[in-house]
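Q: Convert this sequence to structure tokens.
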Amino acid sequence: MAGIKRILFTTDFSEFANHALKYAIGMAKVFDAELTMLHAVTVYRGEEGTEEKDKFPSLDRYCEEVESDANGRFEICIADMGDAGIKVAKEVVRGKSPHAAILDYLRKNNDIGMVVMSTHGRGGLSHVLVGSVTENVIRYAGIPVLAVKKTEHETTDPETGEVIIKKILFPLDFSRESLRPLELVKSVAGKYGAEVIVFHSIDVEVPPIYYTSGIDSILQLDPDIKVRVEKRMKEMIGDTLSAIPVRFLVSDGRAVEQIREQVMKERVDLVAMSSSGSHGIGEFFFGSTATRVIQKAICPVLVV
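A:
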């Protein structure tokens, strides 16, 4: 998986997309990959039962105008990038919706190994875009997706404008699926010289039957559980990250809240996690954990 040769960056030319472009360039440099910038001209959806249903307004004329404008904006993006040292291509496609156009393009271009996209759109509402675009792309793309949002701390070099990644949080739940991002984490951390924090949060809640005994946490029943969890984490990672600064961190509480807390406390620059976990059901895990991490985390999230 780490041998990514082509990266797709989706854009609506908003301020948020322009911020995500820096990460797309960064990932292209990590993997020495070609960067394809994609803009989708989306269809006007008319009323059901009318001739305008699923048709572009003014069809060819409308599309030509929007595509011309998109190409002009692409040229501005490329000019702003300067000599990034990577190969760049641009594409304008038509579709019924942004995510449908992106997924259709991915189906026709199966050499793409990663998608980079902003969690915010023109309206600036990340939770809306996660539900309508980013979530669908992650769910159906079948390849890693880097969902980018602005961090609360500075993540770009003030002189070069390039992205800086100093800390990567890698949540692990001991399932085979949760290890999927490992090779990508190794590649990104190696390129940026970043520290990797391998993280697990123990769900400490116990069945109500224990309440009458004054026990309300698994830590009371098993005081050494954190030591054993850390040992198991080290066994799973093995020597894969031996050449990279790595730290193992065990916390307690609900996963999403603990991930967000650690992102803030550690000033994490990137979270890398699987789209499916210990349940073995990708959609269930994605809906309950990965989506909420993207919504709540104050840094980019790489979902694999």
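The chain is about 40% helix and 20% strand.
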